[in-house]
Amino acid sequence: MNSTSSKISIQISVNIGKISALITTPSNPKAIMVLAHGAGAGMTHRFMEELSAQLVQKSIIVFRYNFPYMENNKGRPDPPAIAEKTVSAVVDEAHKLYPSLPLFAAGKSFGGRMTSQALSKECPEFVKGIIFYGFPLHPIGQPSVERAAHLKNISIPMLFLQGTKDKLAELPLLEKTCSELVNATIVKFEGADHSFKVGKFEIIPELVIATERWLDK
User: Fold this and answer.
1) Which of 102, 126, 125, 105 lies closest to 117, judged by CA?
2) pLDDT tens digits, one per residue of 27-79
3) Between the CA of residue 61 and those of 25, 86, 173, what are the distances in Å?
4) Which of 2, 65, 139, 156 is most deeply buried (CB count within 10 A of its CB)?
5) In which element (H, E) is residue 12 found?
6) 110-121 and 80-97 helices, crossing angle to 10°
7) What CA–CA distance (Å, rounded) separates 185 from 205?
8) Which stretches does DSSP call E strand in 27-172?
């Protein structure tokens, strides 16, 4: 499938400044996904590149972006208030550019959690759902569910794509969390870790299949 890519700059606020975004557009798009990166790697990380390329093959526009700390080469992730403001600004910009397409907000790990935190406070009606590529429920070795408390404030559908060997989300805890949410779907990937690797193999094609099936519903 033919696609085009463009890079734009988005002003978050006077104090926060601008961030970069990459938009990859298939020839006949059916939806747009706003995709946030994880804590340790930006929008051009190989996982983000490969996931985006395969989603575009499924007729999904992928709108990737950097959080301010990554844009400015700072090692430490932004405080939640800044990250959430960034999510909201990028989601609004994506909708302005493609107002007729259904929009889904998504993120890898930290990016997914910041996305849901932002949308738990204010969710525009044009956002049709949230996709988590590995929800970071708790720090490694510290099982808890506090990070999921805000999810109860979200009424739109949520898709949790989760490896069974993800050390940032003990599966029984995440399954219980999802069972208490109105519109949550969890898809498990046997043997996959937080990076969606099973041994030496990355399972991005399986993630894309699960994403498309859910979006088409």
Assistant:
1) 105
2) 999 999 999 999 999 999 999 999 999 999 999 999 999 999 999 999 899 99
3) 5, 19, 33
4) 65
5) strand 3-13
6) 80
7) 19
8) 31-36, 60-65, 103-108, 127-133, 158-163
